[in-house]
Amino acid sequence: MAEHTPSWLVGPGLVALAVAPAQVVIAAEYLSIEQAQQSLFASADRFEEIALALTPAQKDSVAKLAGPQPPHRSLRIWRALRSSELLGYVFIDEVIGRQDFITYALGIDAAGKLSTVEVLAYRESHGAEIRGTGWRHQFEGRRGLDQLHFRADIKNIAGATLSSEHVTQGVRWLVGLWQTVLQSGPTAAT
Amino acid sequence: MSFRLRGFLIPPLASRIAPLISMLALSTLPLVAGAATPEELEARLQALMQQVDELKAEVASLQQQRGSTGPQDAVAATGFDSAGPAQQQISATPPTAVDQNPTLFGYGEISYSNPRGDAADATADLGRFVLGVGYRFDDKTRLLSEVEIEHAIASAEDPGEVEVEQAYIERELAPSAVARGGLFLIPSGMLNEVHEPTRYYGVFRNFVETSIIPSTWREGGVAVQGNTAGGLRWDIGLTTGFDLSKWDPTSAEGQESPLGSIHQELVLAKAEDLSGFAALNYTGVPALRLGGSIFTGGASQGQPGLPSADVTLWEGHARWTPAAWDFAALYAHGHISGTQQINLTLVGNPVLIPEDFFGWYVQAAYRAWDRADWSLAPFLRYERFNTASGYADIGAGLTPSPLPDQSVWTAGFNLILGTGVVIKADYVDFRAGGDGDRFDLGLGYAF
After folding, report:
1. Does residue B283 share a domain with residue B176?
2. Does the structure's ipTM exceed the value 0.90?
C-alpha cells in the first residue's frame, strides 16, 4: 500500500513518523483502498467512512439474510458522494480463503445494484483465479440476495472453490447489511 | 480518511485530537516566555475547554455508534474483534496485517472397501492423515508444508508410511507472479494439486490420475506461477525427475502405475537428469476450466548400465460447472524413450518397461440436494486406461504384448456436510481388463 503523508500530524506525531517504515507492503496487493473506491464509483468526488451500529436484532436479520459465512477479519464502509448526492457505498471486507484472508471491495449503489468485485489482496498459494475479470464481473449489475446464489448465479471456479464460495458468501453478508441498515439511509456517519 | 503509521491505522478521531495536542503544546509556549497577558491566557483556556467539551461529546457519540457489522462466527473463528470500523482502526492488528501465523490445516480420509464376491478381502483403512503448516516470514515470503501418514501406522511391521507431501517456500515476484522452491506438487491434471477428499468424487481417487498421473506427484525444484487478469494461469518449472533404475521387473507395481514406481519424491533423489514442466489453465469464462500440461526430462540419471532415457507425460483437461452440474474430462499420455536397450537387459522378467501408457475419463456429477449446511451429489464416471499400451520392439518373441485397455464405471455420491466434511459411497465396476469390482464407503475431511 502506498504510504500517505499524514498532514494532520504535528509535534510529537512527527517524531513517530520519523521512525515509521518507509512503506507497508501487503502480500499480493493489486489495488489500494483509494484505487478500489475510484474504480467502483468513478464519478464520486469524495468518500466518507462510516461507523455502523447494529442492534442484536439487526445483526440476526443480516445473518439470516446472508446465510452461512466463512471467517471474516475486518470490514470497512464508505459512503461514495458527489457533492451532497449519495451515489452508494463502498465495502472493503476480508474473508478467509483456505488459510489466508482475501481482501476484496464491493460497491452497492443507491438503488442496491452491485458493482463488480475488486480483489485488493490475495494471499493463498492456490486459488488466485478469482482475480480474473471473468469471475469478478459476475457480480456486476446484480441486485438482491436472490441473485447471489453460489453456483447457480455466481459460478464456481474448479480448483478455486473455497475462494469462490467464501467471497460470494462475504458479498451476501454485505448485501444483507445494506438491506437491513443502509438501504433506508445510514443512522450514523462520522 | 485514515493513515497508516508503523502498522497501525490512525482513526479519524485522532486527526481531530492531534491539532488539540498541538494547540496545547503551542499554548504553553507563551507561558514559558511570559509574553501573554492574563486575559489572553484566559481566552485561550476557554477556547481549549470548549474544544475538549466538543471532543468528549464526539467520543461519546462514536462509542454509541460503535457496533459489530461482521458475522458473529467470524469473531470466534479468527479471534479478531471484528467490531465496527472505529474499533478496527485502533486495533493493534490492522486489517491488512499478516496474522494467523503460523497456519494449521490438513485433511484425512477413512475408507471401507468390499470387493465383489470376495468378502474376505474387505478392508477398512485410515488411508491418509495429513497435517499442514503454513508460515509467513514476511509480506511476500511464506512456507507451505504437509506431512502425511498413510495407513495409520508406519513401522517395520506395518505397511504405513510417513511422507512429506509438500515443503516449499513461495516468494512473490510481482502482484501476478510467484516463485516457488522446494518440494511441491506438479500442476498436472485436475486432482494432483487439489487432492483433498472433499474436492473429488468417489471414495478413492480416480484410476487415471493415480495410475497414469501418479498423484500425489511432487518433485523438488523451482517454479514460477503467474495469473493474468484475463483468467490465464501459467506455470513453468525445473525439477527433479524420474529414476528408471528403480524399475523392478519382478514387481507388478510398474503395471499399476509406471511413473508411480519410478518417482523419487525428493528422497535422496538422483539429480543428474533434471526435468522441466509447463502448464496452462484458463478460467476466464465463469464455470469453465480448460487446461493442459507437459512434464519431460531424463530418467536414466547417469546410472551404470542405463542408456539415455526420457520420460514425458502430457495431459489435457476440461471442467464445466454450470449451476448444480459438474462435468469433467481428462486425457493423459505417458511416453518413455530409450526403453529398447534397457528392456533387452530385463528379458525373462515378468514386467518390462512400457514405452507408452495412457488414460482418459469423463465424469458427471449433480448437486441434487443443496441445503445451507449439506448437499448431496450423485456422480458417474467412465474411465479407460492402459499402463502398458505399447512396448519398444526388442525382437520377435521378446517384445511383450501390450496390455489390454481397462475400462471401468464408478457410480456413487458425495454427501458434503458444511464445507469441510464428506461422506462418500460408490460402486466400481470393471468392464474390461480388470476384476476389481467393489463397493466402497468413505469419510473425509479437510480444513
Report:
1. yes
2. no
